[in-house]
Amino acid sequence: MFGRFLARLGISARLIAVLAIGFTYQASISGVSLIHLKESLLQQRTIEVKHLLETAFSTVVFYHAQAAEGRMSVAAARQAAAAALRAMRYDGNNYFFIWTLDSVSVVNGGHPEWEGNKFEPRRRAQSSVRPPRRCCAGRAGRAGAGT
After folding, report:
1. Distance from the Cα of residue 108 to its chain's centroid
2. pLDDT for 75-92, tens place per residue?
3. Is position 3 within any domain?
4. Are 25 and 72 in a shared domain?
5. What is the pTM of this model?
């Protein structure tokens, strides 16, 4: 059936059909490649952010261990950890920050003047977007409780 259809077409129509099929095939291959590239870049960025977080966390853990072993007072360890985090930068001018579960800024490398302030989440008019349940898992005592 398809062969008869092609036989009735002229040479120029056949060339256009071949070009259209080739273009469609190439466009679909390019689309799939772009989707895989996007997923790969997101995965790489996720891994990079995880490593940065582990670096900051290990810095805080080091000072916590110093205080636990009695080499530093708890207040001195907190101040030293905060100073170290304030000085840490990544990707040029990005910085680390720590907030409590009550939205109080403990350390903010980009804006030290914000430390100690409580930040309430902004309410959007007629917004039905809610944060995932896992953001409050620490309060409920269920570490890792997901959405």
Report:
1. 18
2. 999 999 999 999 998 888
3. no
4. yes
5. 0.59
